[in-house]
Amino acid sequence: MPDRSPYSLPASMITPESVFKNRRQFLRQLGFLGAAAMIGGCDSRTTASAAPGGAASGFNLPPRPSDKFYPAKRNPIYQVADRPETPLKIAGNYNNYYEFSTDKEAVNPLSARLTIDPWTLEVGGLVAKPFKIGFEDLVAKFPLQERVYRMRCVEAWSMVVPWIGFPMRDFIDFCQPLGSARYVRFLSFMKPAEAQGQETNQFSWPYFEGLRLDEARHELSLFVTGIYGKPLPKQMGAPLRAVVPWKYGYKGAKGIVKIEFVEKQPPTFWNELAPDEYGFYSNVNPDRPHPRWSQATERDITNGDRIATLPYNGYASLVASMYKGDEF
Ligand code: MTE
Fold first, then answer.
1. Which of 26, 165, 210, 213 could form a disulfide with 222 if both were Cys (CB 3.0 to 4.6 A apart)?
2. Average pLDDT in the chain
3. Is the bond into 289 cis (omega within 30 degrees of 0)?
């Protein structure tokens, strides 16, 4: 039996389809407390357990021409010296991807149904010329590299994984955003026939996130297409996700299909649902407790160790100068 987080959705929050499709009405009905109960929770388990059977490998992928780009060369600048890497068996079976399920261990098997080939990325908004690019062309254009980053979820668990991808900055330069562009917005896929959560749970899909343009252009911000020397498995966001390691994990949208450059700070999925709990910036901050739990420590899912949370998830020397310090 999958182990449910104490914060997973109670039956009383399941709203009839006719109601949840009306976002405003749904949010009103839910009230602040209900919205607050949806993500998060320092779940009580000490270690994540791998799903049984073949799904445990996590590499439930179709063969694609871009497979030849893996493994990618490790960039030695981005290492995590003080913590062990989290084995894929753990990282790939403990996933937040509500399009499939709110149960972390159900995401891997359920995401197998998602078709990721072909996959098109659309670029729009304030750019010299809006365009579309197929995933295979994208990966052929931007050389891949491997970087080991810490990843800290707002729920106070964390891991260390070798991502493979390319700097967001390279892609942004290629898009030629106009001078008026100040933010970038990410939109995830909408495929309710393949992602059962989009059909059955009450969130307003698709998932959407955003960054300030200077954050997206920061050297640490990555578009990720692989992990552990191989193409990214579906449960971790294949074929394309964002990784912004000094922010809580939900800032990294998975299954991205659209990138838009905009002038005003864009709305984001969790901030819309519970603005007092999930800010636009969401920089990892051990001194700013979540309204329902402390952010001072985190549980490393590799071994269950409880460790101190670092400001900006350990990347303060690289990113703190972008902020006044009170961004939420
Ligand atoms: N992206 C989409 N499209 N849908 C999601 O539910 N969850 C976010 C983020 N990206 C999410 C998403 C959250 S809350 C976290 S912590 C990370 O993905 C989890 O990434 P992982 O499962 O690869 O560890």
1. 165
2. 87
3. no
**Is the CB of 58 within 6 Å of ligand 1?**
no
Please tell me the distance from the alpha carbon of residue 189 to that of residue 68, in angstroms, as a whole number: 25
Ligand 1 atom, smallest distance to 189 CA: 3
Q: What is the pLDDT of residue 38?
A: 62
Of all protein residues, the one whose alpha carbon is nearest to atom 23 of ligand 1 is: 236
Task: State pTM to two decimals.
Answer: 0.88
Which mutation among 202, 205, 254 tests ligand 1's pocket best, with the greatest number of atoms within 8 A of CB?
Answer: 254
Residue 60, pLDDT score: 73
Report if residue 16 sits inside a domain: no
Q: What is the 207 CA–ligand 1 centroid distance (Å)? A: 10
Q: Which residues of 205-214 are buried (b: 16+ CB within 10 A; e: fewer)?
A: bbbbbbbbbe
Q: What is the pLDDT of residue 161?
A: 98
CATH classification at residue 268: 3.90.420.10
Q: Which pLDDT score, from 0 to 100, does residue 41 have? A: 53
Give residue 252 CA to ligand 1 midpoint distance, Å.
Answer: 7
Mean pLDDT of the region 91-102: 97
Give the SS3 label for residue 87.
coil
Check pLDDT > 80 for residue 255: yes
Instruction: Say yes or no: CB of residue 98 within 6 Å of ligand 1.
Output: yes
Q: Which domain holds residue 253?
A: 65-98+114-322
Q: Which of 18, 184, 155, 14 is nearest to 95 (CA)?
A: 155
What span, in angstroms and rounded, lies between the C-alpha atoms of 204 and 198? 8
d(CA 248, CA 257): 21
* Domain annotation covers residue 60: no
> In this structure, is residue 10 part of a structural domain?
no
